[in-house]
Amino acid sequence: MQNDHEFSYTKADFARVAELIYQRAGIRLNDSKQQMVYSRLARRLRALQIDTFSRYLSALAQNPDSEEWQQFTNALTTNLTSFFREPHHFEALARQMQQTDARPFRIWCAAASTGEEPYSLAMTAMEAYQSACPAVQIIASDLDTHVLATAAQGVYALDRLDKLSLERKKGFFLKGAGINAGKVRAKKALREMIEFKQINLLDSRWPLDGKFDAIFCRNVMIYFDQATQRVILEKIAGLLKPNGTLYVGHSENLHFMSDWYRSAGKTTYQLTEHAKAARGKP
Ligand SMILES: C[S@@+](CC[C@H](N)C(=O)[O-])C[C@H]1O[C@@H](n2cnc3c(N)ncnc32)[C@H](O)[C@@H]1O
């Protein structure tokens, strides 16, 4: 470990961080993340005027209800996302919407990050139903409260929209002026389709009612080990309608859960008959 750090930081400190975030969020940090952890948490030590990682981590461990836990967690999540990321999923979703009479069509976006994904879902719904007010309900959740606040605001730097067609830019966003020049905001109709809430996928109970036609749980399971993924995927099965679809990220696959999920297209899955029978059973 380098010694030219502003704060004392040892291998044992890194191991402790890795253990704490694993217990809290299921996130696995391998040794290649040592420097990333230092730079992300150094900001917290600076803000709290604590001079060593060891003191910071002891204070956390001794105060399980401290608000600092949320800051610690927010600092260690990776929130990379973009509008219409993995575009084939939005095309598949539009087809799914057009092929079902479910009203409202219910979607849970389970790792929504800064909101680009749920707003892409809302745009897809408006386009698929050719309506400014489609019968679609979207619940967008994340563990990280900081990104959720950004998502609920729906304000983005203009260049985040670079890959969107002019029609989508004009149809779904308002350009900021004055101090908001260079920014855009998702239009009210788009924002009103989405309910934002904090959900930790690791929690034993998720504050969700009813079943969903589509669940987007993309690019988050890569941070979990397989045992954690299995627990989460079995719980997700309990929330899918019998013909519902689970959308996962490009590097995630559910081969190890083939008793529960069958492939329904490129990184999309539906429940097997076994899963439909088994889910919900104690
Ligand atoms: C890389 S982003 C993926 C965002 C989006 N789904 C996409 O594919 O573009 C991963 C997100 O998962 C969230 N996350 C990590 N651990 C989580 C957990 N235990 N429960 C809920 N969300 C979690 C992070 O805060 C982050 O915003």
UniProtKB/TrEMBL annotation:
Matching InterPro entries: Bact_Chemotaxis_MeTrfase, Chemotaxis_MeTrfase_CheR, CheR_C, CheR_MeTrfase, CheR_N, CheR_N_sf, SAM-dependent_MTases_sf
E.C. number(s) listed in UniProt: 2.1.1.80
Top enzyme category: transferase
Pfam families membership: CheR (PF01739), CheR_N (PF03705)
One GO BP: methylation
Keywords: Methyltransferase, S-adenosyl-L-methionine, Transferase
Signal peptide: none
Binding site for S-adenosyl-L-methionine: 79, 81, 85, 117, 142, 200-201, 218-219
A GO MF term: protein-glutamate O-methyltransferase activity
Limits of the CheR-type methyltransferase domain: 2-274
Catalytic activity of the protein: L-glutamyl-[protein] + S-adenosyl-L-methionine = [protein]-L-glutamate 5-O-methyl ester + S-adenosyl-L-homocysteine
Keyword Kinase included in the entry's annotation: no
Function: Methylation of the membrane-bound methyl-accepting chemotaxis proteins (MCP) to form gamma-glutamyl methyl ester residues in MCP.
UniProt protein name: Chemotaxis protein methyltransferase
Organism, as annotated: Chitinibacter fontanus
